[in-house]
Amino acid sequence: MKLDQTDLKILNILSEHGRMSYVDLAKELGLSRVAVRDRINQMMKEGIIEKFSVVINSEKVGKKVSAFFEVDCEPSALVSVAEKLVENPAVASCYQMTGPSTLHMHVLVEDFEALEKFINEELYALEGITRVETHILLRRFKSRTGLKL
Predict the structure, then answer these.
(1) Residue 76 carries which DSSP code?
(2) Could you tell me the pTM of the whole model?
(3) Residue 34 belongs to a domain with what CATH number?
(4) For 20, what's the count of Cα atoms within 13 Å in the CB-facing half-sphere?
(5) Is 25 helix (H, G, I), strand (E, B) or coil?
(6) H or E element: which one contains 51?
(7) Which H/E stretch holds residue 94?
């Protein structure tokens, strides 16, 4: 599917206002409600829009500590380590990065005691990890979900 300017506008509006109705989108774009719905349905069918979700402020629900990890693994263990880590509800995201079999991981926990428990009981308990580097988030300047077009 080739995206046109209208599709890009729809995506940008939805990235900021995901609950906007078809009627309100149509008014903003000068299209019919049906045309907007059909475009969104087509983008969902093509996998351009993967899902609609809610963004939760982690601090307001008790997850006060945000930590980023660089986890180096033995090459043969990378996938199994990643698969085990992503099962943990504290792991918000996990990506394979360039470098020596490196995972980049974002973890959200209640407090430093929970972070220490995660590191010692969940992370260090996994076989195949060769190095762990941890960075604690002090202040957020920008946080964005989704892609800006």
Answers:
(1) G
(2) 0.78
(3) 1.10.10
(4) 21
(5) helix
(6) none
(7) strand 91-97
Q: Could you give the angle at the alpha carbon of 67 between the alpha carbons of 62 and 71, nearest 5°? A: 140
Structure tokens at 14: 């939805």
- The rounded distance, in Å, linking the Cα atoms of 130 and 73 is 5
Going residue by residue through the chain, which has 149 residues, state the pLDDT in tens, using 9 for 90 and above: 899 999 999 998 998 888 999 999 999 999 999 999 999 999 999 999 998 888 888 888 999 999 999 999 999 999 999 999 999 999 999 999 887 789 999 999 999 999 999 999 999 999 999 999 999 999 988 876 666 66
CATH number at residue 86: 3.30.70.920
What's the token pair of residue 83? 């698969």
Closest CA to 148 of 6, 13, 2, 4: 13
According to DSSP, residue 66 is labeled E
